[in-house]
Amino acid sequence: MSAETLTFQAEVAKLLDIVVNALYSQREIFLRELISNASDACDKLRYAALTEPALIAGDADLRITLRLDKDAKTLTIADNGIGMDRDDLINNLGTIARSGTAEFLKGLGGDARKDVSQIGQFGVGFYSAFMVASQVEVHTRKAGGEHGWCWSSDGKGGFTITEDADAPRGARIVLHLKDDAAEFLDVWRLRQVVKTYSDHIGLPVVLLGGEDGTGADETLNQASALWTRSRSEVTEEQYKEFYHHVGHAYDDPWLTVHYRAEGAIEYTGLLFIPTQKPFDLFQPDRKQHVKLYVNRVFITDDCDGLLPPYLRFVRGVVDSADLPLNVSREMLQHNPVLAKIKTGLVKRILSDLKKKAEDTDAYAAFWGTFGAVLKEGLYEDFERRDDLLALARFHSTHGDGLVSLEDYVSRMKDGQDAIYFITGESVAALRKSPQLEGYLAKGVEVLLLTDPIDEFWTGHGLRWKEKAFESVAQGAAKLDAIKAEEQAETPEQAPADQTDALIALLKGTLGERVKDVRVSSRLTASACCLVADEGQMSIHLERLLRQHQGQDAAPARVLEINAGHGTIKALAARAAAETTSPALEDMAFLLFDQARIVEGEAPADPVEFAARLSRLMQAGLV
Ligand SMILES: Nc1ncnc2c1ncn2[C@@H]1O[C@H](COP(=O)(O)OP(=O)(O)OP(=O)(O)O)[C@@H](O)[C@H]1O
């Protein structure tokens, strides 16, 4: 069969362009990537062979080999794992399937140096081979496959595929090294790179024939799965490299949890929390990233039952001898042993997080990255609610830093029986909300919540230390029972008959635009504000839904007026003195629109709003 020539997917071509042309300070990582892929391929084969032993028969000793050829200037990395067929080659080595890649690449500019350091965090996988090689050949045969294939490319636009009848099971990757990459033909350099980046790989990485290809074979790594070693035997650097391998990640682990559970069910967990936010954190098609092993045999890296969705940022490995080896991925979902392992893992991760929370700054960084995800657990995991609430941190009206509920409760005022919060788009905007005024005047702290998820868990009737969560922008403010430290002077209020007249005017003029109009006990400085009525959806949530689901009809809200505010007092006096006039009507609308604007909404009718404002300005000027 003659060679078939295919072109790279546009994203791959762009990635390769950056990889090939940039100066890369750490280009030895190509070896880590290729060894990592070889190890994954062996894991996949071992799993497939559980149900189809013929796949591995005759060559069951899985391993990864390196071979040097100084004359030909080639370095070959081979494995006897699952291998690839023609379609796999086209799909895996001509495209990038990873979710988020296209967006990520779109975001890159033209600065090769900068771009490459960003790509380093993202991972270039197989394509990193082109940092050191001018030509790459992949000779491969899929386990059980009839045909072997050779994929070949110079990394510049396309690749060829030809049949390779001699290719044994697995993949053999031949790198024709560039002149400036001759260092990778030296044994000492290979030893060093493998030791640094791939020592944790559970399979032996063997240099065949030593330096000149005719000497003795040399195993370059420890070849024992890292998680089976005791913590004292593993260095930080090794944990980090293992995290890169298992998590397909390129940052440092923020937290490493490595333990062996003993008792009714035994398992080992080696788990990592990343420092950086993974690309797919909020993508609906995201996968779990904890690999499940049974007695060191890889089973799956997509096991939903292993950790709850609110811990989906955790990477790592769980290995247990208490699960049956022939367990299918589908059966896993309902496996009681797995359910117990999950409980244990969650408990352990949350308790380690609690310890880490003592380091306020480091924990604040973690919270900023993953807090919004962890908060999903507040309504997903009933049993862990208290632990999760204890771990939660919030912005609040008390200073600029993050506060815990423990801190909040310790600062509660006499007579305060709820934890107050307000939801909105940004902390800066929330700090200026009129709804906060009455609370601030009494020294009552309010949590400022800006994650969309906050709208959901706060509506679930949660309590912390017997205290309910209450929105300051919903229902009537219950501030009377709270004693202020210093009684601020209450400004003189408009007489009741005048306020009644104004309320009647506002209700009459605004009609169905408002659900109710009432005197506020939450305002001190602003003239008016809108609040959601008891049982109504919060204004912020309703806006979020409108944005995401295209709903356009917003429900009517309660308009609250501040009877101690100069404008309201003057308006109330006029409302009591005159019957409805066009000028009073204008002012009723302006008051309403003003409350909408403060909420981040547009005036109900922007053109009318502008006309009314102009009339009022003119009246003031002439
Ligand atoms: N030695 C191999 N044997 C079998 N399949 C392989 C081998 N090397 C790569 N592949 C296939 O090619 C795919 C792409 O590899 P690549 O290294 O680019 O990305 P990845 O391993 O999926 O993710 P990462 O970017 O984290 O490395 C792999 O997912 C795998 O399916």
Automatic annotation (TrEMBL):
Binding site for ATP: 33, 37, 79, 84, 92, 99-100, 121-126, 329
A: annotated segments: 1-329
Main localisation: cytoplasm
Annotated SMART domains: HATPase_c
Record bears the keyword Cytoplasm: yes
Pfam families for this protein: HATPase_c_3 (PF13589), HSP90 (PF00183)
Keyword Ubl conjugation: no
Cellular location(s): Cytoplasm
Keywords noted in UniProt: ATP-binding, Chaperone, Cytoplasm, Nucleotide-binding, Stress response
Region (C): 544-622
Domain Histidine kinase/HSP90-like ATPase residues, every copy: 26-181
Any one Gene Ontology cellular component term annotated for this protein: cytoplasm
Recorded superkingdom: Bacteria
GO molecular function: ATP binding; ATP hydrolysis activity; ATP-dependent protein folding chaperone; unfolded protein binding
InterPro entries, per database record: HATPase_C_sf (IPR036890), HATPase_dom (IPR003594), Heat_shock_protein_90_CS (IPR019805), HSP90_C (IPR037196), Hsp90_fam (IPR001404), Hsp90_N (IPR020575), Ribosomal_Su5_D2-typ_SF (IPR020568)
HAMAP family: HSP90
NCBIfam families found in the cross-reference section: PRK05218.1
UniProt record similarity statement: Belongs to the heat shock protein 90 family.
Subunit-structure text: Homodimer.
Function noted in UniProt: Molecular chaperone. Has ATPase activity.
Protein name in UniProt: Chaperone protein HtpG
